[in-house]
Amino acid sequence: MLASLIGYFGDFDLAEDATAEAFAAAAQRWPSDGVPDNPVGWLVTTARHRAIDRLRRDRVLAAKLRLLAASDRQLATGDSMDTTAIPDERLELIFMCCHPALAVEAQVALTLRAVGGLSTEEIARAFLVPPETMKRRLTRAKSKIKVAGIPFSVPSGSRLPERLGAVLAVVYLIFNEGYGDPDRPGLAAEAIRLGRVLAALLPAQPEVLGLLALMLLHDSRRDARFAGDEHGQDLVLLPDQDRSRWDWRQITEGRALLELALEPGGSGPYVIQAAIASLQAEERLDWPQIAVLYGALAERTGSPVVRLNRAVAVCEADGPAAALAIVDQVELPDYQYWHSTRAELLRRLGRRDEARAEYRRALDLARTAPERRFLERRIAEP
Amino acid sequence: MQYALLIYSRPGAAEGLSADEREAVHRTYMELKDVPGMVGGASLHPVETATTVRFVDDAVLITDGPFADTKEIFGGFYLLEADDLDRATEIAARIPAVRLGGSVEIRPVVTDEA
């Protein structure tokens, strides 16, 4: 509903205010007048009328008059009065929120606000910033959309893959923020919801299905990834996880989506990662196969983090010495997991002192409580 | 909407180019003047011809050279009328400086109606 209004008026704040007013009107009228046959249509029409009233009140602003003129034209043609056909413009909204001309953090906040429907306070809490900061971030972003003319549209053919990449990156970033931290599980669920919206709107895009599959497969292990009590949660590594606590319905759904993505020949980064996550849900892990997939992924993305992940698989397939050779070719001194992976390999090779030093470097960079506790325990080991 | 496409060039970007390549770059700059929606612009003489004016100690101070030493030099701009930012970036990406180590900054222009 918000999407359709933003598309209609080209103004984020106006659409938000009008939507709120329409809901308030509904709360007042529906109990006495009864719920209309088409509640959503009623709300959209009411919100549009409220917005137009507001635009009329703001006549002094010539820019808004321009919007009013456009709305009047559409009203005259009767297009807005059709309450049965409400165009689904969520996709336009998502592409606008994830436009590369906006800073990534603004893309994330806008997407959660406009598409996910989270309040500014909820987003601020999720990203651990003061509400005022988040409010400013959103205001700045909305203002840039308006002033710089960021379009409310789905990019055409040749631009779509690149712009879709930006959208998927935002959704995956939201997922990872929530997935890594047991105190913020809402974000992962929200990212999955966004992934479902995208999969419903763009069912022919393998990477869209791949991302949703990937998130579902990872998230299926959420209850098994941490163990502990009110004093804190500990990280449980994949081989030690209690498989009966995995969400098998979600795994089945993720695998079905993966099949759908592979069918038309999907082999993008999200599809490959989903394939890896699917293999990781097997009873006996096929580490050589996982290492091959990480190799393919590293080739496609050129990402040092992926090469690091490949090293972990190589360690299980061929032993820690082969893995350490790979890790040492990747230099990521500011990346916590580079140090913790190196540390783990050194530990397995019996090089205790070097391992402990690396665990300490990882600890300096660790952000979440379970990770810090895990690393502290490793350092304390004899 | 109106956009200013501010062109920043890498110093010496043209030096490595052959005569033919230079000719092609020049031709592209000329062609862009005829793109639908192009309403103005200017190409500036090299930065060696710049003069800077400041106010220091209650007096106007005139010095030779540009305001600041930067890695990229402002060399000119186009003024483009376009429906939205996507159209503006499409045109900006065709400006030769972009592929020669420079960049183009897109700024919406303040117009009377906004």
Q: If strands are numbered along the chain, what order do they take across the biggest sheet of chain B?
A: 2-5-1-6
Q: How are helices and strands ordered from N to C of chain B?
A: EHEEEEHHE
Could you name the ranges of chain A where pLDDT drops below 50 across 5 or more consecutive residues?
Answer: 64-84
Strand proportion of chain B, as a percent range, falls in 35-45%
Q: CATH topology of chain B, anyone?
A: Alpha-Beta Plaits
Q: How much helix, percentage-wise, in residues of chain A? A: over 70%
Q: How many E strands of chain B? A: 6
SS summary, helix count of chain B: 3
Largest interface, with Cβ-Cβ < 8 Å? A-B, 13 and 14 residues
Order of helices and strands of chain A: HHHHHHHHHHHHEEHHHHHHHH
Descriptive keywords:
heterodimer, A: 382 residues, mainly alpha, two-stranded antiparallel ribbon, B: 114 residues, alpha+beta, Alpha-Beta Plaits, 3 helices, 23% helix, flat
